[in-house]
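Chapter review. Work through the record for Transposase before attempting the end-of-chapter questions.
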Amino acid sequence: MRRSFTFLLRPTTKQTAALAACLEDHRTLYNAALEHRRTAYAKASVSIRYGDQSAELKHIRSDDPDGQGRWSFSSQQATLRRLDRAFAAFFARVKAGRTPGFPRFKGRGRFDTVEWPKDGDGCRWDSQPEHTSATFVRLQGVGHVRVHQHRPVRGRVKTISVKREGDRWYVILACDDVPAEPLPATGAVVGLDMGVAALVTTSNGVHLANPRHLAATADRLADAQRDLAGGRRGSTRRHKKVARVAALHGKVRRQRSDYAHKAALALVRAYDVIVHEDLRIANMTRSASGTIDAPGRNVAQKSGLNRSILDAGWGVFLRVLAYKAESAGRELIAVNPAGTSRTCSRCGHCAKDNRLTQAEFVCTACGHAAHADVNAATNILRAGLALRQAAEAA
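Structure tokens for Transposase:
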């Protein structure tokens, strides 16, 4: 299986400046390649491909030895492939009849990653193995950068990426042939209902709390954003204010990820089969503001619900749960959640009036009463086991 490992970098002041220059030069290359494609098509109706632009890299590097020529050729090819994928996605959306979203130029805050496609080609993981107490990654043009390696790397390192988040730098290793770590069988199965009051409610009545990390930081974040709004663009002071906002968002993101890992690991250790809702989170959190001609209704309430759903981190949790289940040899089943919150888990009667409040479920047909989320999780489990049985019979 394939997995990624993320570690914090500990660059020196000089290396930090070199990393920033590397990122900026790759951003410039991306924007120049995009402008090349736009101009060629607008002026001569000629479509420029990745192969055409990759062939020009040699001349670009020789004409700018102290700029573009400093960095790895393969990392620059990866940046050009990134632009090529953006165009491929654009044409796929056009073909599917969706909103196209033409590739845009990248501002300084919208280009934060450089990739080296192959370990050993312009980069080297664990570049100084003689150091027994520290790990280093070597990057062409930057040098040997110290890594805060908090866990072992498994499998074969395939690609290396460096990412900037605020004032922090991270190295991301994509590894192939990562061995699975199967856990002993428990014989237990469970259904999961995702929510806002509780992040997860299981079919056997366990509620995993929703920490609401963003809400806990909301006051500090509001102060930081208010302070940022009054800053003058381009000033050093405004840069510090931007860094403060980014640091608060980064902290929330790390807290949310940490909690998702712990909650998912507890479930994977306890159950052999885990059934969850197949949620379309992007659709669920779409804005209700509408248009000028057709304005939305209950916009404030929908905005608050969207914020609560995103703060809960359903997507992060389900993504972490999926790869932990795969590594542990557990079975993960996603089912359509339609009707699960209104259907009685005892008699199967489905009606809107069954769910009286957010937490209370009373069946109008048989009188069955239960916590609404536990009732929904039971229905989800039953639907997942039915899918599993049908698949085994096929």
